[in-house]
Every structure is written in structure tokens, then in C-alpha cells.
Design goal:
The protein contains two helices and six strands. The chain is globular. The protein has one domain. With 91 residues, the chain is α+β, with helices and mostly antiparallel strands. The model has no long low-confidence stretch (mean pLDDT 94). The strands form two sheets. It has a four-stranded antiparallel beta sheet. A two-stranded antiparallel sheet has the order 3-4.
């Protein structure tokens, strides 16, 4: 089932990254604890990365009608952690 989630990834004194997006509830559960790499999104040499904690994610709603409207009108905004999953490096 799909749901609308908010993300707030705390980056210490540099600020935070925010986003609101639709994701599958099972995939969201799997993403918790995964290493996320945003790169230099907060300026040169910022290198924002770290594990996605449960506290970083908030379920907004899983009501199907609301999710469909959100998707229909493309209301997603900000950062979606699924776009920044750190890929395993081959040795």
C-alpha cells in the first residue's frame, strides 16, 4: 500500500533536508537504517550522508483517496530518500 511520508534529515549546524513524497509502506520499512548519501547539497564540501532513522520519517496518511490526489497533482516536494540510497561499491 502506498502512503504519503515527510522526511526531515537533520544535518547538524548546517541545517536539515526536508521532503514530502509517496512511497510503498513495505519499501519504506526496508529503507529505515539504510545509508543515504545526499552529496554536497548544503554547499561545497558538505558531504551529507548517514543512516535514515525512523525519527527522520513521518507517515502523513495512507488514505488511498488522498494519496491518489497527491500523485495526480504532483505535490511531492523536496528530497526523496529513495533517490539517494548509497550504492555498494565494488572492491
Amino acid at each position: 500500500m502506498e502512503a504519503i511520508y515527510k522526511m526531515r534529515f537533520d544535518c547538524g549546524r548546517m541545517g536539515s533536508l526536508k521532503g514530502i513524497f509517496v512511497a510503498d509502506t513495505e519499501e519504506m520499512k526496508k529503507l529505515i537504517g539504510t545509508e543515504i548519501y545526499f552529496g554536497e547539497v548544503l554547499g561545497k564540501h558538505s558531504e551529507i550522508e548517514g543512516p535514515l532513522d525512523e525519527a527522520d520519517i513521518e507517515l502523513v496518511t495512507n488514505e488511498a483517496d488522498v494519496v491518489e490526489i497527491f500523485k495526480k497533482y504532483e505535490l511531492q516536494s523536496g528530497y526523496n530518500p529513495f533517490d539517494y540510497i548509497r550504492e555498494e561499491e565494488d572492491n
